[in-house]
Write a structure and sequence with these properties.
This protein is an alpha/beta fold. About 55% of the residues lie in helices and about 15% in strands. The protein has two domains: about 200 residues, Rossmann fold (3-Layer(aba) Sandwich); about 110 residues, no CATH class. The chain has a seven-stranded mixed sheet.
């Protein structure tokens, strides 16, 4: 089912296997070696039965007991229903198909859609392989996630046998996504079953993207031309604004110098005003002192007038005393003269003694 050519030209890093695959296919998958293989199937024992003991011990093999459902939330599996023309199941035909779980619903396992599983997986899968009858509808629901895959391998029916299986639509490249091509079809033992390898035609996909990008680039270039014109006009306006700014800046510097000069003058005037205020305060204090001295002077002047009056009185009294003393002195002098005369020997008084 897997050719060595595809393994060599598209070496995968991670392979997603949905459901059981034939033992030969499983051996081919594990023979790639370098790839991480995740087998999503609720029956771990069935997967382990396909694996060799050393594979089970390998870090490259992971068995995820999850149900990938056609509709999220419903873990529904489809029984093999390859019908005869009479409408009855032909058991002989079942050996050409994969071994499936003989149950319509399994409630004991988690069920997710393929899209949700790919969204929540921590691995970036390069290949996806499945043998499920409803794989076409699964791929259609997960089409937004498929463009990252290099290879999608599935088994499908051809011819009239398609209408003989229930709930099955064969996955065609148009169902997968744009950019996938049916690169190789491998016949199986059943004449009406085929295994098809759908590969991601990166060249075609990239070519389409390049065409889109080229058209987008042309639009951007046209837009860039308009923006360039606008930019040129803006540059011209900017140059004019720069010239205007330079002129204004020169005027501003001149005004700044003038303002600084005025500020210095204002500071000098403020200093002088401060000194004047201090002088006024000092004069105010001197005035208050002068008022006190004037009051004291007025009091002293009045006292001086009183003293002058008293002085005149005293002077008058002194003159009177001087006159009195002079008279007393004169009288004393006269008395003394008389006394001296009386003491003289020539006087009769002296002779009587």
């Amino acid at each position: 089912m897997i050719t060595n050519t595809w393994a060599r030209t598209h070496p995968p890093k991670a392979i997603l296997v949905l459901g059981l695959v034939p033992a030969a296919t499983f051996r081919q998958i594990m023979a790639i070696g370098a790839a991480d293989v995740v087998v999503v199937h609720p029956d771990e024992a069935a997967v382990a039965a396909l694996a060799e003991p050393d594979w089970l011990q390998s870090a490259h093999l992971t068995i995820d007991p999850t149900v990938i459902a056609s509709v999220a939330g419903k873990s529904k599996f489809y029984k093999m229903s390859l019908l005869r023309e009479s409408g009855f199941i032909d058991p002989a035909e079942l050996r050409f198909l994969w071994k499936n779980i003989e149950a319509d619903e399994i409630a004991d396992y988690p069920s997710v859609s393929l899209a949700d599983y790919l969204s929540n997986s921590d691995k970036s899968f390069d290949w996806i392989i499945s043998e499920r009858l409803d794989f076409g509808s699964l791929l259609e629901q997960a089409s937004d996630h498929l463009e990252l895959f290099d290879l999608i391998i599935c088994r499908h029916l051809i011819g009239d046998q398609v209408s003989m299986l229930n709930n099955y639509a064969p996955p065609e490249p148009t169902v997968l996504a744009n950019g996938f091509t049916a690169a190789e079809t491998l016949e199986s033992r059943h004449p009406n079953l085929r295994s098809t390898i759908f590969c991601n035609d990166w060249k075609s996909r990239l070519g389409s993207k390049i065409t889109d990008l080229t058209s987008e680039i042309a639009g951007l270039q046209s837009e860039a031309g308009g923006l360039k014109t606008e930019l040129s006009a803006a540059n011209t306006e900017l140059t004019d604004r720069k010239t205007e700014f330079t002129t204004l800046n020169v005027a501003f510097l001149e005004k700044s110098d003038e303002l600084n000069s005025l500020r210095e003058q204002l500071d000098e005037q403020a200093k002088r005003f401060q000194e004047a205020q201090e002088r006024v305060a000092e004069l105010s204090r001197d005035l208050e002192s002068s008022k006190d001295l004037n009051s004291k002077f007025l009091l002293t002047k009045n006292d001086l007038a009183d003293l002058q009056t008293k002085y005149r009185v005293l002077c008058e009294r002194n003159e009177a005393l001087e006159r009195f003393a002079q008279s007393v002195f004169e009288e004393a002098s006269a008395g003394e003269a008389l006394f001296s005369k009386a003491e003289s020997p020539e006087t009769p008084m002296a002779k009587s003694k």
